[in-house]
UniProtKB/TrEMBL annotation:
Keywords: Membrane, Transmembrane, Transmembrane helix. InterPro entries: ABC_thiamin-permease_prd (IPR017195). It comes from the Bacteria. Signal peptide: none annotated. This is Permease protein of ABC transporter system. It comes from Bifidobacterium parmae. The chain crosses the membrane at residues 12-34, 101-120, 127-145, 157-177. The keyword Aminoacyl-tRNA synthetase does not apply.
Amino acid sequence: MAETVAKTNYKWRVVDIVVAAIIAVASGVIFWGWDVVCAAPLALFEAVTPGFEGLLNGFWLFAGPLAAIIVRKPGAALFAETLAAFLELTLGNQWGVGGSLIVGIMQGLAAEIAFAIFAWKQWNIGTTILSGALAGVACWAYYWMTNPGWNAMRVSWYLVGSIISGVIIAGALMWALHKAIAATGVLDRFASGRAEARV
């Protein structure tokens, strides 16, 4: 129960900013690394059926849900996903401002909405999975809007793939990662770490 409903404390501390920024920077480097190697996997998945490559989007969606579930402050998901996307863009990639920063902001905002729905009081695997799923929807929305030539089948496959990828990679996997990190004791200054210590 302690992990599900926590005492509301919306005030950010310096340590919250630092940890959210660290998560964002690490995520941004991973995003950029995935940019470098993703061409072949994307082409392979797209060859199965156009839109199927949405299943790989989770590798760009996880910064927001991870930062939110660790820091547990309003805006953490948006902050981390946006900063990660900015770093990814700064390091240089094939997607440009739109495919990096703009979509990153959209993904971060969508990931944030999952926690906002519950007034930033529900910190469990369900909200984390919802956060990943909504980030996937935002990713789909950006690429649908910027690719008006996509047919209905591709749009549908891309949506389904993005949601599944968000649920698994940005949601369930980030929840498991947060639990593993908390178990080491390094998050004792956070509600997420103290909740793990009580389990």
